[in-house]
From TrEMBL:
Cross-referenced PANTHER family: SI:CH211-193K19.2-RELATED, SI:CH211-196P9.1-RELATED
Organism from which the protein derives: Cyprinus carpio carpio
Protein name in the entry: Sterile alpha motif domain-containing protein 3
Length: 377
């Protein structure tokens, strides 16, 4: 088999493999040895059945028989900084610390391994092809205040890398967050300052804003759920944007690998049939609720159904355990433990508030609080 292997835009190799490939791991071992790849990596291939669009290689039989084009995405070590993320579309499967009858959520995807809030300061990624020029520019700026002349190619690389880094945290950042990115860029590379700007980064803020908009279009074309959901918003009104609220890490995840809307719809139908049983299996419910999470989020976010319709379509979602499980799927936060710990924190202040309350319910409240005091004692 002859392979064209894309390691980087300027590092594309051709390999002839004589061995009989039987497993993806076998191919990875060969690529590691022949291309001297040290870290773990993901293999994508151009699929002729989908117009040569890239797909993750999960089975060696998916490769064309004679020639294939592969793309290598090196994975980031767990102890590395978040700024070295492979791609804004990368997701990681995680298991839930939430435990109710040993439940877990293997199909939950997180964009940045648990980063739920906008970082401060923003982690500026490395610009590998221009890092040396930027370091020299910083040295010249420190020495005599000379600003670096930024070429078009250099600016494109900076903006592309920053757009990917932004998307790894949030698909729709606001103006203040975009300004924090440009401020962090100038803080790290003062040689890039605007010569005629009071802040030194106004033009970078505008450039980043437009680049993020272009990046949305690319992700929409690639089928990223979190941006395609806003493709038909009314009059392009930004107030109608459907985007993640605070702590919604998995606002609108893509389907699990190997699953389509059609296959997930069949799982949903099977889940509905299971819930009609008098003694349904919680293990089956847990498994299918995990698997159909992306489909459920699409329906709820895109269609905004009434609660009665959600109950009809997803009856399992209204079970107590599944309320907690769904909360974890979306926020990566344990609902019960968070609620109870917060209740402990504010209980004394709430009791003081109840004691000071007057009005029509004063006597009833006093009776309840007296009973509460007797229980405490």
């Amino acid at each position: 088999m002859r392979l064209r292997v894309v390691l980087a835009p300027d590092n594309i190799r051709r390999l002839d493999i004589l061995e009989n490939l039987t497993l993806v791991e076998h191919l990875k071992t060969i690529l590691k040895e022949r291309l001297e790849i040290k870290d773990d990596f993901l293999i994508q291939f151009e699929d002729p059945e989908f117009g040569n669009e890239l797909c993750n290689l999960t089975n060696i039989t998916e490769l064309p028989p004679e020639r294939a084009v592969l793309k290598i995405l090196q994975k980031v070590p767990e102890d590395s900084e978040p700024e070295t993320s492979i791609s804004s579309l990368d997701t990681a499967s995680v298991s839930s610390p939430y435990d109710s009858s040993n439940q877990s959520f293997p199909f939950v995807s997180v964009r940045q391994h648990g980063n739920s809030q906008w970082p401060s300061p923003f982690p500026i990624p490395k610009f590998y092809y221009n890092e040396l020029r930027l370091e020299k520019g910083n040295g010249n700026f420190k020495e005599d205040g000379t600003l670096l002349t930024v070429s078009r190619e250099m600016k494109m690389e900076i903006l592309d890398s920053i757009a990917q880094a932004i998307f790894s945290f949030k698909a729709y950042p606001n103006n203040q967050e975009l300004e924090s990115v440009s401020a962090a860029l100038i803080e790290k590379y003062p040689c890039l300052k605007d010569s005629g700007s009071g802040t030194g980064y106004h033009s970078w803020t505008m450039s980043i804003k437009y680049k993020v908009g272009n990046y949305h279009q690319k992700q929409r074309t690639a089928g990223c759920s979190e941006v395609t959901v806003n493709q038909k918003r009314v009059n392009n009104d930004s107030r109608c944007l459907k985007k993640a609220k605070r702590c919604e890490i998995n606002f609108l995840p893509d389907n699990p690998v190997g699953q389509t809307d059609y296959s997930l719809q069949r799982e949903k139908d099977a889940l509905q049939e299971e819930m009609k049983k008098k003694h349904f299996s919680m293990a089956v419910v847990d498994s299918k609720m995990d698997l159909t999470f992306s489909l459920r989020r699409k329906e709820i976010v895109d269609e905004e159904p009434l609660v009665a319709d959600v109950l009809k379509q997803w009856p399992a979602l209204f079970l107590e355990d599944q309320v907690c499980a769904e909360f974890y799927r979306i926020t990566q936060t344990n609902l019960k433990s968070t609620f109870l710990s917060s209740l402990d924190e504010y209980a004394s202040k709430m009791i003081m508030l109840y004691r000071s309350r007057g009005g029509a319910y004063r006597d009833e409240m006093k009776t309840l609080l007296d009973q509460f005091d007797q229980v405490i004692i």
